[in-house]
Amino acid sequence: MITAARGNMLRCKSWRAEALLRMLENVLEVGERPEELVVYAALGKAARDWPAYHAIVDALRALEVGRTLVLQTGRPIGVLTTHPGAPLVVSAVNNTVGRWATEERCYERMREGKTIWGGLTAAAWQYIGRQGVLGGTYELLRAAQRKHFPEADGRHRWLLTAGLGGMGSAQPISAKMAGLSSLTVEVDPAKIDRLVVAGGLDLVAADLEEALAAIGKAVAAGSPTAVALQGNSATVFERIAARGVVPDLVTDQTAAHDARFGYVPEGLDLADWIRLRESAPREIELRARESMATQVRAMLALRDAGAVVFENGNNLRVQAAEALSPPESERAFAGIPGFMQAYLRPLFCRGIGPFRWVLLSGSEADRDVVDELASRLFPERPEVAEWIALARQHIPPQGLPARSCWLGYGERAALAVAVNDAVRDGRISAPVAFTRDHLDSAGMTHPRIGTEGMADDSDGVSDWPILDAMLLATAGADLVAVHSGGGGYSGWMQSSGVTVVADGTPEARERLRLALDLDSGLGVLRHATAGYPEAQQAVRDSARPESHGPELHWINPNT
Ligand code: NAD
């Protein structure tokens, strides 16, 4: 078992390299199937294979500042002489030209050990377990509540969802933080048990009757509860719809994006599913898509009965569409909006997205110092301090102490620079790595997830993550990654990832400021260019004296 090193002992020649090594170790410490190097999202891997992993570790240990380690699809292919202000690691994963970017070709190459799906944050070593997505799920549920139930605080409402995997297990915790009760359907009892141990569930119901009774009681009392039910989401969603029970919110976070490895078809137990997906992969995919179609039909029925239904970034509608009739599929896309388009884009317009930091010392006390700084620095946005207080109370620890926090343009760099100063002064005992999810304002193109329904029709345009990575490299960010989709996401996405280490030096201060402002600033410009008034306002706001970042200079293509 791999665990991340803690404390102040360096195994590498600089803290910058040591930080990246600890981030790599940490994604395996908190990952789903570390023995296979699988971190999350069904197949998302930290490295190509174990020899590649060990070669990366050796290369990081030997890496001098002024050199750059080059990773190609999860394996190291060389160290080039660059300069001290250059990234220490650049990485590209499974970027494949359009006509070659098919699921079949990807699975075949994966089997042959020739490629991997790097997830968003798996092969870029930025995953922090469910903590990472907790903030996003909380922001999403809050935005949905504000939009649909502006009158209520949510305590008398509930969410129906599925999947308690790496990301999905954030759902019951985030729902409770947002004041909602939740019923989560999960096929694998081990995933349920794991979340019970982590303190994320109040009840594992024996059957649907018990689950609905517990939810009914909690909703009536206005006392949010988190209930899990072992079962297949297609079956359970259909039964709920047939009973005429109407949840307030309905979504899903099984790994539906991958019909072979991410979604268990109805009527199969886990052991048979695991066996058959190797011996009869085509049959498994067909059956999974049929079950997804059943689940989507149930979601539409719940929507017709009054529930608010949305897709939460797992490509469920795209996969189900293959087993739905054309009119049903049309109804699914019209009636079940993607979460980004429906709720979160106004935040991306301001560069606000899933920023995160990792305390490389392993010390909770260090995390407290950063929490305190983040709570204090942005009085004009009280929701930041509110989130930090909630996160401290509700989020179970996983791996190195870490925090995700939705910060925007200027704010990210302001916090990181303050933390760098605290590392320099010794108020924080060791360096801190700053990073983010790839699903961010500039970093992501996925026409069914991050960029669905863009105002200028740029849903599938992947210039933005590529521009982002180029800018991040010019800033000397410590790690810059460009990932494409893999497995069920083959041909669907392009993303960029970044990690910058606050090691207390003046050079780190400069790198943090540049990289974090460029990254979120490009996000604002992207959305301004697409025509979003909120982003154009964010450009104007950047010129105000109270702006945390430098003034953004946007060249409006329409004038
Ligand atoms: P995971 O593979 O770790 O977990 C998937 C879970 O779904 C597993 O526990 C599995 O047992 C369960 N499952 C599969 N089929 C089921 C079924 N029919 N009924 C009930 N449970 C079933 O994946 P993850 O990391 O949790 O990610 C889930 C999905 O969310 C992925 O598609 C991923 O791409 C997406 N995602 C979205 C966001 C976002 O911001 N919205 C972020 C990250 C990931």
UniProtKB/TrEMBL annotation:
<dbReference type="GO" id="GO:0016153">
    <property type="term" value="F:urocanate hydratase activity"/>
</dbReference>
<dbReference type="Pfam" id="PF17391">
    <property type="entry name" value="Urocanase_N"/>
</dbReference>
<feature type="domain" description="Urocanase Rossmann-like">
    <location>
        <begin position="129"/>
        <end position="343"/>
    </location>
</feature>
<feature type="compositionally biased region" description="Basic and acidic residues">
    <location>
        <begin position="541"/>
        <end position="551"/>
    </location>
</feature>
<dbReference type="InterPro" id="IPR035401">
    <property type="entry name" value="Urocanase_C"/>
</dbReference>
<dbReference type="InterPro" id="IPR035400">
    <property type="entry name" value="Urocanase_N"/>
</dbReference>
<feature type="region of interest" description="Disordered">
    <location>
        <begin position="537"/>
        <end position="559"/>
    </location>
</feature>
<dbReference type="Pfam" id="PF01175">
    <property type="entry name" value="Urocanase"/>
</dbReference>
<dbReference type="InterPro" id="IPR035085">
    <property type="entry name" value="Urocanase_Rossmann-like"/>
</dbReference>
<dbReference type="InterPro" id="IPR036190">
    <property type="entry name" value="Urocanase_sf"/>
</dbReference>
<dbReference type="InterPro" id="IPR038364">
    <property type="entry name" value="Urocanase_central_sf"/>
</dbReference>
<feature type="domain" description="Urocanase N-terminal">
    <location>
        <begin position="2"/>
        <end position="125"/>
    </location>
</feature>
<keyword id="KW-0456">Lyase</keyword>
<feature type="domain" description="Urocanase C-terminal">
    <location>
        <begin position="346"/>
        <end position="540"/>
    </location>
</feature>
<protein>
    <recommendedName>
        <fullName>Urocanate hydratase</fullName>
        <ecNumber>4.2.1.49</ecNumber>
    </recommendedName>
</protein>
<dbReference type="Pfam" id="PF17392">
    <property type="entry name" value="Urocanase_C"/>
</dbReference>
<dbReference type="InterPro" id="IPR023637">
    <property type="entry name" value="Urocanase-like"/>
</dbReference>
<keyword id="KW-0520">NAD</keyword>
